[in-house]
Amino acid sequence: MEYRRLGNSGLQVSLLSFGSWLTFGNQITDDVAEALMIEAYDQGVNFFDNAEGYADGKSEIVMGNILKKLAWDRTSYIVSSKVFFGCGPKGPNQVGLSRKHIFEACHAALKRLQLDYLDLYFCHRPDKNTPMEEIVWSMNQLIQQGKILYWGTSQWSAQEIMAAHMVAKEYRLIGPTMEQPHYNMFHRDRVEEEYKLIYKTVGLGTTIWSPLASGTLTDKYLKEIPAGTRMDLPGEEWLKNRSLTQEKLNIIRQLNNVALDMNTSLAKLAVAWCIQNKNVSTAILGASKITQLKETLSSIELLPKMTAEVNSSLEEILQNKPKETKY
Questions:
Q1: Could you please report the per-residue DSSP string of 190-237?
Q2: What percent of the chain lies above the pLDDT cut of 90?
Q3: Active site residues
Q4: In the 8-state DSSP scheme, what is residue 23?
Q5: C-alpha span between 298 and 1 (Å, rounded)
Q6: Would strands 3-5 and 205-208 be described as parallel, antiparallel, or unpaired?
Q7: In the chain, pLDDT over 70 holds for what percent of residues?
């Protein structure tokens, strides 16, 4: 395993991490969840990602029970949660980023995870109904109380992230250390272009999610949708309709051919493509089977093969390289 600093912080995160979105407390049994976490940890993964909204809090309960049972050294791993969507009733103060919800959600997450503190705490979405000063102050107070160590954002624009840093600078508070953006071969603009200046000015770290584009950047959907997969889950029809268009399937087949020529799998190629970007601190892997996780965890081995020639071939297929902004 390789490790990278999380932005300008001193925290070292494994280049590949493990997340529980859609799987823990929903798609897989608790025994499988435990086996996946053990496999990840044994392979050097030190960051486990979660959120209050995942399976309405059940994901954090599952992970908390596993962490308590395994009794790993607390200094050896990093755990996150996220606040915004709530995990139950959606009353006016049970969602969003008000000071009330940030504090109550943090305490509830700690209880579900059975932890004394969160290493990383994300604002899961921007909240236009809450003043930025309130958000930054609330996160800073949680750090002062020892409830969280670093705070960050998820799916925030560059402008919103910099607004938070401006507030932090004005009041001498701690600004966001990291952002959790959507990033993969099909979804590139924000990580590669929009955040470009922020990496230099405030040292933004990134914990990217969906490196496999919800599983489409694998070979399992090339013929049909297998039963029990993410695309087959009830309520995820929107994901299937968005992700498995004929145009995308044609691109995926071409990408798969490149992977085969490299004597590897499309899944490993897709993950390696993401983590070759030095502005990616860690790529969050999801899995419902041990075989899937073992495969993607070995993607680091492919990094030396990500040559200029290979990347040129991939760009020729993708045809979606972000247009460079002149500053």
A1: IIIIITHHHHHHT--EEEEB-TTTTTTSSSTTSS---TTSGGGSTT-H
A2: 90
A3: 54
A4: I
A5: 9
A6: unpaired
A7: 94
* Position 102, amino acid: I
Q: How far apart are CA 320 and CA 123, in angstroms?
A: 29
pLDDT digits (tens, 9 = 90+) for 122-132: 999 999 999 99
For 222-279, the pLDDT digits (tens) are 876 656 666 656 766 656 666 678 889 999 999 999 999 999 999 999 999 999 999 9
Q: What contacts 41, CB < 8 A, 6 or more positions away?
A: 70, 72, 77
Burial bucket for residue 187 (CB in 10 Å: 0-12, 13-18, 19+): middle
* CB contact at 8 A, 138 and 105: no
pLDDT at 79: 99
Secondary structure of residue 13 in the 3-state scheme: strand
Of 55-64, 217-226, 298-307, the one with minimum mean pLDDT is 217-226
pTM of the shown model: 0.94
Closest CA to 214 of 191, 242, 188: 242
The whole-number pLDDT of residue 107 equals 98
**What pLDDT does 324 receive?**
86
Calculate helix-pair angle for 158-171, 132-144, nearest 10 degrees: 60
- CA-CA-CA-CA dihedral for 238, 255, 3, 163, to nearest 10: -50
Q: Is 56 left (phi over 0), alpha (psi -120 to 50) or beta?
A: left
> What are the chain's domains?
3-215+266-305 (3.20.20.100)
Strands 282-285 and 16-19: parallel
- For residue 228, the model assigns a pLDDT of 63
Q: Residue 234 and residue 242: Cα distance in Å, rounded?
A: 15
Cβ neighbours of residue 221 under 8 Å, at least 6 residues apart?
215, 229, 231, 244, 249, 252
SS3 content of the chain, % helix, strand, coil (to 5): 45, 15, 40
Contacts of 260 (CB under 8 A, 6+ apart): none
